[in-house]
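#struct-help
A.M.: can someone run this one for me? Single chain, 191 residues.
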Amino acid sequence: ISVFGNSHTPSVFFLLTGLVLLLNYHKTSHRQELVLSGVLFGCMGAAREHELLLMMIPVSFFFFFPPTKQGNMLTTHYSPTQKFGNFLIFWALALGVCFLFHLPLLFGAESATYNGQFQRYWVSGLSDNYLGIVSDSLMFSLEQIFFGMTPIGAVMGLSGLFLLFSKDRRLFGFLVLWLIIPLLFYGNLQM
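D.P.: on it. Structure tokens below:
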């Protein structure tokens, strides 16, 4: 993913590892997997805060619509109260861990520098460069995705999505959210 040190690689590592543990939790109901998954998502947020924000809706989808099958096993079914409780525990841990990593930067000796960098990022990343939900930039991004695939790759990708939809609509829903939400953000940036 990276040829020099930046935050993308650890962010992807924590995301994927956290997702594996979250899926295992839905299969086994072992609370430690839920807790560790929340901690790992917090580490993801510590590495790249905006990536965690973009993943909040897709990951939250898992709590209320967990995948129905994992291999040959059905997932554990939770009452609505348990689902909401698991949701709160997970996000409290994730956001808490993320906040703990940023605490020294927010209130330490370098807080003025950190806050200035955050404000510049906010202005350049959102308020000045975000073009709305549908823009010419999004159309260009979609063209790049389309022309970046071979015809065989496009057919295989669409076939895979169709098969996933027919086998597990909840997992399909998560995947679509995972693709669409970041695309609507990054694809509409003026870059």
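A.M.: thanks! The chain has a mean pLDDT of 86.
D.P.: also worth noting: The beta strands are 69-70, 73-74.
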